[in-house]
Design goal:
CATH architecture of the largest domain: 3-Layer(aba) Sandwich
Shape: globular
Largest sheet: 8 strands, mixed
Number of strands: 8
Order of helices and strands: HEHHEHEHEHEHEEHHEH
CATH superfamily of the largest domain: Periplasmic binding protein-like II
Number of domains: 2
Length: 242
């Protein structure tokens, strides 16, 4: 394998790996705004808030009212501390000002089992992981970070007045700043071509991800925006993982 290909594989990253987990650390190993060279944002998928099918809530507004009428009684869960589902969870709690129990899970399998078994009143998780349960009507999705064509009637964070709940899970390519310009340009060209490949789009769609290509400049802008949003949420929740 060539050094070029090895470098590309190492620097395929997700939003949580580049932003939220770094923001959670007391002694971060790097700053993505300065220590990584964005190449392209490639694909994304929203994060979803789900409830058991037996829940009395039919909408996000119903949930807000239920939570406010029962302070401290509802149990909520998320998977992976510092991941996008955790940020969504914290943002909802903070922005609608509810008192709910917070239960972290190691992975989405355990989290969804808890929702199905009605051990949780609500949960936040990736759309790819929760969509099968929504399709089978074992869970209901009340909110997305961004609207999804899979369930066009479900509102986004912005739709319900929660601007901090407006991000997607994403995948992007990075290189290290010392990378020679010819290698950088080569990767930019290769990623742009892949993003236009209908077979790649089809495979991503089947996994509930969408091609959402952004060039390096737009990608860098998004990283700065999410750095600020995630930072505010994490700071106000007083979270650290070190």
């Amino acid at each position: 394998m060539s050094p070029f290909l090895s470098l590309c594989e190492v620097l395929i990253r997700t939003g949580s790996g580049v932003i939220s987990t770094v923001r959670l650390s007391k002694t971060p190993a790097f700053d993505p705004r300065n220590d990584l060279l964005p190449v392209a944002y490639v694909a994304d998928s929203p994060v979803a808030m789900s409830i058991p099918k037996t829940s009395p809530c039919k909408s996000f507004d119903n949930f807000v009212q239920l939570a406010r009428n029962n302070p401290g009684k509802l149990k909520g869960g998320f998977s992976v501390v510092g991941g996008e589902s955790h940020i969504m969870f914290l943002s909802i709690v903070r922005d609608i000002k509810i008192d709910t129990k917070s239960i972290p899970y190691v992975g989405t399998g355990q989290l969804h089992t808890a929702v199905l078994g009605r051990h949780l009143d609500w949960a936040t998780a990736s759309l790819p992981s929760v969509m099968p349960y929504a399709r089978s009507e074992d869970m209901r999705i009340l909110l997305f970070t961004r609207r999804s064509p899979d369930l066009p009637g479900v509102p986004s964070g912005v739709d319900v007045g929660l601007p901090n709940v407006s991000f997607n899970m994403w995948m992007g390519f990075f290189l290290l700043p010392p990378t020679p310009r010819p290698i950088y340009d080569r990767l930019v060209s290769a990623v742009s071509a892949v993003a236009k490949d209908p077979d790649v789009a089809k495979k991503l769609t089947s996994a509930r991800f969408n091609i959402a290509y952004k060039n390096a400049q737009d990608f860098s802008t998004l990283i700065n925006e999410q750095w600020d949003i995630f930072g505010r949420v994490i700071k106000e929740a007083d979270l650290k993982v070190d």
